[in-house]
Amino acid sequence: MGGAWLLSLPILLIVSFKKKYRRSVPARFFLWKNPPLPSGRLWFHACSFGETRALAPLLEAFGDKAALTVTTQTGFDAGTKLCPTVRYLPFEPLLWLWTRPQKALVVMEAELWYLLFHLAKRRGARTMLINARISDRSWGSYRRFAWLYRRIFARIDDVFAQSEKDAERLEALGAENVRVTGNIKLANLPAATRRYEKPEGLIVTAASTHEGEEEGILRAFTAFRRRHPEAKLLMVPRHPERFESVAKLCRSVAQKEGLRFGRWSESRKLAEDLVLIDAMGELVNLYALSDIVVLGGAFVPVGGHNPAEVIPFGCRLISGEEIFNQQAMFDAVEGALFCDLPRLAQTLESAVTAEPLRLKTPISIDPILERLRDVV
What we know:
By secondary structure, the protein is an alpha/beta fold.
């Protein structure tokens, strides 16, 4: 493994010049400005933004007794808002030099690195895997490498799984002390950060849309609006570099259909029939105004986005069927409507009288908190 690291050095150096990896690659592979965690902490580890944010209630519960490692820059940025001690997790062979004795190691989801658990346990930590899940798509791969996962799970003291099916699969791979606590990403649902006045009429928000989705959504909305002339559409592209191309498309459709078009960045108002939200960080605030959410990323094979963020606001939710990256989140909720783009106008009509999206069962982090309090 050390040889592979040396051979990859030129690639790592090139990649480190990219903005996305400018901090994470030097920190993870060269320990640049990435000292070891202080000893005697509750060491939490997550991969990226979503997993890091899901740890917020646990990090808050233990304050300065907690420390956090992440693997991505977005995870690091989120972590600095939640925990006073944050580091990048080093490349696995460097853990021999980097790891210090801790009271516990708590790892989110599928970060099943052998040395991470081995060294943490060897140096005195209680080891835990939380929010554990094995999807239908990845189950075959896990079984092929069952010999490796048995070695890893032999070094994990407690496993908290998302569902009974996950628990059965984890136990088949050698996991012990498995408990089902649900998906803890649903234990800390977002709240609006700003409050805007809700316009009159039915508000449809097309959230986190990707290339190949906006045209079909606009076509469906204009058909839907013939029966609901008071309806407004808020278009929220996932990536800011697409704002201009989506603005051009929306303006063209608005002119053709006789709709008023506006850009959020120009007025900060929602007075027009079709509004492009060309700003970041406003999606949750718009959910608070919405009646129906059409969640993007699943009408094309992107894998979907998190549906649970709409739950606090009583929205009806429509998704495409390509939800392979968010299957666990959709399994934990009920009331979502699914369709492809040709059927979206019809599904919008059904959503008018549908029930809001809701959780199937309450989620509690209490069992995890209790286990950690035993070692503090």
